[in-house]
């Protein structure tokens, strides 16, 4: 029996997206920039996908969707695309719990002379809007706060933070990779100027993503070339990947009404079944939380015999896939900077685990995982 509970790392490509991609690879393989019939058929496919992805976040203008190779490139385009507009270093604000696709570009800008403010978070991993207001400076040009934190599941007060940014005429970006398809997003009412998306988090394939750019917001491209994607992302579009992304986005838009409450019930069921384990502490906000996300840290982790990575390995031997914190950091035995920013000790942070649920997860899966996890912990703590 195998159970996959790492949907925050990646989701299996759904059959509808695969069928669309296969048809394009074999029949509609033209270059979308070509003027002949083959190229124009491919261009039509890309524009259809653009409308489907725009629908996922209720973007009225499909041209506000810029296709990228994934969420990381979308984040980099947002951060560096704003920074490259300025000849002189300015001031930027990010949170202390950003994905590395934000924190690393910010670190690079800091080396180039930019002033970077990293907003603190509370024990739940939440940014206080008061802290954002206090951090603003006359030369603040960009604020970036992650929408849903991938390691601890906390959903930030993006509406309030975005309103603060807008009231000060500062560009606001959010990484919505974990939120899209799981919680409704409406960029018509949400005060965000830039928003990152990823195909493989919503059952599309890996290798496609998008950055929403509110009409009127200027960005400098990172890649020079043929000027594809509204001159913001040169390079021949990956038509099959983009088409699969579009199909996945449209289906996610249709299914969110039923899938989100189903995931919340399963999430809460798993939390409840693991609640009696001594020293296993839930991480993140338990109310403002991603609907599919379950995360803990072990207070008595030692980083050697007992750590998040140990638990991942033992669960894997039992046929269950979970994560030790974020997948991007799973190869490193070092405490999660996210948990450290939230006030956890290094040892507790080394005991971080994440179980993330998805379309294939059932209540029977949740019950089995809880039982196996308890047995493994009992063996490891004897």
UniProtKB/TrEMBL annotation:
PROSITE patterns assigned to the protein according to its UniProt record, in alphabetical order: AA_TRANSFER_CLASS_5 (PS00595)
Q: Which domain of life is it from?
A: Bacteria
UniProt keywords, alphabetically: Iron, Iron-sulfur, Metal-binding, Pyridoxal phosphate, Transferase
- Cofactor(s), names only, from the UniProt record: pyridoxal 5'-phosphate
- Gene3D superfamilies in the record, alphabetically? Aspartate Aminotransferase, domain 1, Type I PLP-dependent aspartate aminotransferase-like (Major domain)
**EC number(s)?**
2.8.1.7
Q: What's the top EC group for this one?
A: transferase
Q: Which SUPFAM superfamilies match?
A: PLP-dependent transferases
Q: Does the keyword Transferase apply?
A: yes
* Classification via Pfam families: Aminotran_5 (PF00266)
| A GO term, aspect molecular function | cysteine desulfurase activity
Q: Which residues form the Aminotransferase class V domain?
A: 3-367
Q: Which reaction does it catalyse?
A: (sulfur carrier)-H + L-cysteine = (sulfur carrier)-SH + L-alanine
Q: Does the keyword Flavoprotein apply?
A: no
Report the family membership.
Belongs to the class-V pyridoxal-phosphate-dependent aminotransferase family. NifS/IscS subfamily.
> Which protein are we looking at?
cysteine desulfurase
Source species: Hassallia byssoidea VB512170
